[in-house]
Specification:
By secondary structure, this protein is α+β, with helices and mostly antiparallel strands. The chain has six helices and four strands; from the N terminus they run E-H-E-H-H-H-H-E-E-H. It has helices at 11-20, 38-48, 51-54, 60-64, 74-83, 105-119; strands at 2-6, 27-30, 92-95, 98-101. The chain has a four-stranded mixed β-sheet, sandwiched between helices.
Amino acid sequence: MKKIYFLKTCNTCIRIIKELDPSSNFVFQDIKEQPIIASQLEEMHQLTGSYETLFSKRAKLYKEMDLKNQSLKEADFKHYILNHYTFLKRPVIILDNQIFIGNSQKTIKAAKSQIEKLCL
């Protein structure tokens, strides 16, 4: 499977997708219009081994809800991601059995390299 979870209202996500230039066989899911469901999150969890890895601590709600001062466990990270799209670190790029999470240059470079390999 080749899939990108993103927000179409996020300029960073849009810029990254343009930079990656994924082929037409990618599936795109705007997580605001089509929220993540439990089975999708489980698939991501199987690839990462951690809900916390998928969780965005930069989300506005994270600060508003004062979550940084709480002792969150894996079940909490899962709960928040499933209940509000803003808690998923974006973009999430899945290439078969590999996952790339977030917008760091290192992550995007690795995803781009893998996409290019798959297109050869």
